[in-house]
Amino acid sequence: MDIITERYQLSCNRIREIATTQEVDKNYKEFFQRTANFILTVVNACDNRDKIVGLEALRAENKELYLDILEPQYDHSYANPSFACARFGQDMGRLLSFLYTEMRAMIPYAFEQDFEQMVIRMELFVEIYYAFSHTESEKELMALSEEEAIPKLEDIKDTLYWFVSDYSETSTGHRVRSMVDADCDFAVRIVMDSDLSDLRYLYRYGEYISSDVEKMALYLNSLPKERIQLMADTYTEGYRIGFVKAHINLDRKDTVDLHYMLGFERVVRAAIANFAKMGLKPTIYRCENNIFNKNVVRKKGYFGADANRQYLYDHKDDIALFLDKRLVNRNLEVLKFAYEAVKEKAAVYAGPAVIEVFGETPFTPESKSVACSLSAEQQKLSAELRGASADITSKYINPSERSFTIIAFPVPGIGDHFKEIFDETIRLNTLDYKTYERIQAKMIDTLNKAEYVEIKGMNGNKTNIRVSLYPIANPEKEAIFENCVADVNIPVGEVFTSPVLEGTNGKLHVSRVFLNELEYHNLEIDFQDGMIVDYTCTNFEDADKNKEYVKANVLFHYDALPLGEFAIGTNTTAYMTAKKYDIARLFPILIAEKTGPHFAVGDTCYARSEEVRVYNEDGKEVVAKDNAISKLRNTEPSKAYFACHTDITIPYDELGSIIAYGGDGTAYPIIERGRFVLAGTEELNDAFEMA
Fold it and tell me: What single-letter DSSP state applies at residue 617?
C-alpha cells in the first residue's frame, strides 16, 4: 500500500467517525456533520465509479453530488457565504464557507481517481474539525467555557493559509503538466474510447450534467457524419492557417490542447483525427474551480454545465482570505518550478484550440457584502501575480512560436430556434473569406491615409471617442490594420490595429453587453491618452458596486488599462442573425466583435510577439503592433503587459458614424448611421436589406 492510499483510507475512517459524532460546540455540529456526509458522498462516487451502469442511476448520482448548490437548496447551503456568515458571523462564516467549497472541489478528482487531490482536502477538513473538537470531559478538565472551546479565528485562518501555500506546488504542477503532456489523457480516453451514442459517457467526467448538456450531445449525434466533419474541418483548418499566416513551423510542435463544453465530443473526436494528420497529439484538461485554479470569468479547459453561477461568483475572490506578498512569491516560485519540470514538452506545445458556446441566459450576479473581496493592496498583488505568471509562462511557451483558434456554437438553452440558429452559425463560420478579404482590403487602404478615427454613437449611445493611428511610412508596402479573415478567430469579419495611446481620448458606451459570461448595462469607459481614467455601469443601484464590478471583471483589478485594440467588425450577416433571433446579447465576444466596431482594453493583439512580422494577403506588412505601454518590455518588462484583453463592441444600430481623418483634415467616412458608406464596402449592407 502506498502512502497516498494509506492516507486516503485513514481520512475516510476519520470522516466516517465525524459524520456520526460531532464533539464540537452545538452551533457548529450541523456544519461538520453535513460536510462530513458530503465528503462521504464523494468517496462513495469514487468507490462506485465503474459500478453504476444505468443512465437513470448515473443522473441520480450526479444530481446528489451537486444538489447542495442548486436552487433553491443553495439558500441553505454552507457553500453560500450569506448562509454561513449568518450562522457563524462574517469572519468565521467566510472561512468555513471556503472550507466547504474546497471540499466540493473533490468531485472531479473522485472520477479521475486522483487520490492525492482528495486526500489533501480530506486531511484539511479533519484538521479543522479537531481544532473545534473537545469532549465534555476535556472542557471540564481545562475549565473551558463554550466560547473558549471555539478555536481562535486566527488559528483557523492560519491552518487554511498553509494549506493554500503548501499544496500550491502539487496543484500547479498538475495543472501545467496536464496542459502540455499528452500522457495526461483522462478526458481524451473518454472522447476516443466511448460509445458517444450512449449518453452514459457524459457522466464519466464528474462534471455537472444538465438536461441541456444531454440535449447538446443528442443533437450532435443526430447530425450526419459530413456535417460533423465540416464543423471539425473549419475548426482545425483555422488553427493550421494561423500558423501559416504567422510563419510558424507547425512541424516542430507536438501537442494541442482542446477546450470544449461537454456534449461536443463527436466534433472533438473528429478534430483530434484532423490534428493527428498535422502531427499533433491532444491534451485536454479540466476547467477547475478551486482555490488553486479559478476559471470563473472565462472558462479554460473542458467543462460541464454551471450548477449555479451565483455560487461561482460568490467564491471567485476567496483568495482574498489569504493573499499577501509571501503567497504571491510562493505561487510564482511553484509556477516556474512546474514549467521547469516539463520544459521540453512546453517547448513543443502548439497552443489552444477552443470551442466556445453561447445561448445560456445572461447572468447578472448578486453582489454580496459577505462574499470575499480583494482589498486595494490585494488588488495590486493580484494584478502583479497575473502579469508575472504570464511572464513566466511566456519563457517556456514562446508566444511568437505558438498560435490558437476559437470557434463558437449555440447550446439548446438559446431557445426554441436552437436548430435554426445552430445551422445559421455553421453558415457564419464558413462564409466566403475571399469576399471579406477583398472588401476589408479597400477599408484598410483608406485607413492607411488616416491620422485618427472618430467614432460616435446614436440612438442613446453616448460613445464619442477619437482613436489615434500609427503613422505609416510607406503605404505601398505597409498597413496600419490587419485584414482578419477566418483563421484563428472564426468567423470572418474585422480589420484591427493597435492604436497610438497619445491623443486617444473620449468615451466608450454600450447599452447592453455580455463579456466573459457576465452582463453589463450601460457600460461606460472614459479614456485619456489611451488609458482608462473612469468607468461605470448601471447593474446595481449603488454606484460604488458598479465601479467595483467593472474594475474586478473588466479591468481585472488594475487601476487602469490601455486601449489595446481598435477594430471595425464587418460581419453584417452575423449581426442580422442576431437581430432575426433576438440573440445579440447572447453572442460570445468572438462573434459579437465582428458585428460592429470594437475596442479591447488590456494588451494588444500582438502581446509578447511584437517582433513576429505579420503580412496581409496583399503582401503589405502590418506595422501597428505596439503602443507606449507594450514598448516598456525593453526597459521595464513588468509594466509592459497585463495578461488580459477584453473586446467591447458597439452594435450597428447604436453606431452613428466612423470617420477617418487624414493629417490634412480630409475626412474619409467609413460608416454613417450604421451603414457602410466607403466605396467598395457597400456590399456589406446587403445583409441589412435581406432581413
Answer: T
Phi, psi (degrees; rounded to nearest 5) at 501: -70, -45
Q: How far apart are CA 305 and CA 616, in angstroms?
A: 39
What whole-number distance in Å separates Cα of residue 133 and Cα of residue 148? 12
Question: How far is the CA of 634 from the CAs of 33, 337, 384, 558, 560, in angstroms?
Answer: 57, 25, 18, 21, 21
Retrieve residue 449's grid coordinates.
Answer: 491615409
pLDDT of residue 143: 47
User: What's the half-sphere exposure (Cβ side, CA atoms, 13 Å) at 173?
Assistant: 12
Nearest to 208 by CA among 306, 114, 296: 306
Q: Cα 246 from chain centroid?
A: 24
Place of cell 460568490: 314
| Calpha distance 641→633 (Å, rounded) | 8
- Decide: 258 and 180 in contact? Cβ < 8 Å: no
DSSP classification of residue 76 = G
Cell numbers for 267, please give them. Answer: 466534433
Q: What does the alpha-carbon distance between residue 611 and residue 250 come to, in Å, rounded to a whole number? A: 18
Nearest to 453 by CA among 246, 175, 661: 661
215, 217, 223, 225: CA torsion to nearest 10:
180
Residue carrying the nine cell digits 484583453: 645
C-alpha cell at 291: 482555490
**C-alpha pair distances (Å), 242 with each of 43, 407, 490, 599:** 44, 13, 11, 22
Calpha distance 585→578 (Å, rounded) = 8
Asked if residue 170 lies in contact with residue 45, where contact means CB atoms within 8 angstroms, the answer is no
CA-CA distance, 213 to 235, in Å (whole number)? Answer: 21
> What is d(CA 82, CA 641) in angstroms, rounded to the nearest whole number?
36
Listed in sequence order, the DSSP H helices in 246-375 are 265-277, 309-314, 325-341, 343-347
Q: Which three cell numbers stand for residue 269?
A: 473526436
* Phi and psi, residue 515, nearest 5°: -120, 120
User: How far apart are the C-alpha atoms of 281 and 275, rounded to whole Å?
Assistant: 7
Give the Cβ contact number of residue 142 at 10 Å. 10
Q: How far is CA 211 from CA 62, 218, 263, 512, 666, in A?
A: 12, 10, 11, 28, 57
Q: What is the pLDDT of residue 514?
A: 85
Rounded distance, CA 27 to CA 15, Å? 19
As a residue count, the chain comes to 691
Q: Is 279 left (phi over 0), alpha (psi -120 to 50) or beta?
A: left
Please report the pLDDT score of residue 1 as a whole number. 61
Contacts of 10 by beta carbon, 8 Å cutoff, 6+ apart: none
What pLDDT shows up at residue 589? Answer: 85
Task: Tell me how far CA of residue 5 lies from CA of 10, 115, 117, 210, in angstroms.
Answer: 9, 7, 12, 33
Which residues in the chain land under pLDDT 70? Answer: 1, 134-149, 295-298, 486, 690-691
Q: Which H, E and C letters describe 317-338, residue by residue?
A: CHHHHCCCHHHHHHHHHHHHHH
Each residue of 355-402: pLDDT tens digit?
Answer: 999 998 878 888 899 999 999 999 999 989 988 999 999 999 999 899
The three cell numbers of residue 165 are: 501555500
Sorted by sequence, the CB contacts under 8 Å of residue 687 that are 6+ apart come out as 572, 573, 575, 576
The per-residue pLDDT for 643 is 86
Q: Which residues pair with 659 in a beta bridge?
A: 454, 669
Q: How far apart are CA 691 and CA 286, in angstroms?
A: 41
Beta bridge partners of 282: 256
Strands (E), 368-499: 405-410, 450-457, 464-468, 478-479, 482-484, 494-497
Burial class (CB in 10 A: 0-12, 13-18, 19+), 73: middle
pLDDT score of 691: 54
What is the identity of the amino acid at 324?
Answer: D
